[in-house]
Design a protein that fits this description.
With 169 residues, this protein is of the alpha/beta class. It contains four helices and six strands, in the order E-H-E-H-E-H-E-H-E-E.
């Protein structure tokens, strides 16, 4: 059985108009929401074997902050350029190419690709995975990552800061 956690980066800053989209950092709300969601994952006993992040600044920063909450060293997070604004098909190719030894992976990325991927993987109509939102999807019949495919997963949870009353404002 394989499990995927799709985590959309935290809210990013548009303060510096000179920065490229790739280089935008987290804003104040993102810096509050991301650790909260990391604590929620810790409470839910989510312990991914493999960590992969888009190399965009806001996604990488999100991954590092979640890793801190889950007591995982940032050196265990793989940066991947091809996750930056990736289409669902590209994201699926990345997933299908993962190490067989890992039973679970957390992937930090961007919309609209993550929302579209989540919808295609588990046939649940996600309208939007909000910033700092995370979806857990399980593949009970997948022995290897190559077995993971569209329409074969089951959503096990969908959480976001707005879904949790104790989230920071």
């Amino acid at each position: 059985m394989k499990t995927i956690y799709l985590f959309r980066h935290g809210k990013s800053s548009w303060k510096d108009a000179q920065l490229s989209d790739f280089d935008r950092p987290l804003n104040k709300r993102g810096k509050q929401d991301v650790p909260f969601m990391g604590q929620l994952l810790l409470y839910m006993n989510v312990k991914p074997d493999l960590w992969i992040s888009s190399s965009a600044k806001r996604a990488w920063s999100t991954a590092k902050r979640v890793a801190t909450e889950l007591k995982v060293g940032k050196e265990n997070i793989i940066k991947m350029d091809r996750l930056y604004h990736a289409e669902p098909e590209t994201l699926l190719q990345v997933i299908q190419g993962l190490s067989v030894t890992a039973s679970s992976v957390i992937l930090f990325g961007h919309n609209p690709g993550l929302t579209e991927l989540a919808t295609l993987l588990c046939d649940y109509e996600f309208t939007d995975i909000p910033t700092s939102g995370v979806v857990g999807i399980q593949f009970s019949k997948a022995a290897n990552w190559t077995d993971v495919n569209f329409h074969q997963g089951k959503m096990i949870f969908f959480e976001s800061p707005k879904n949790n009353s104790s989230a920071p404002e």
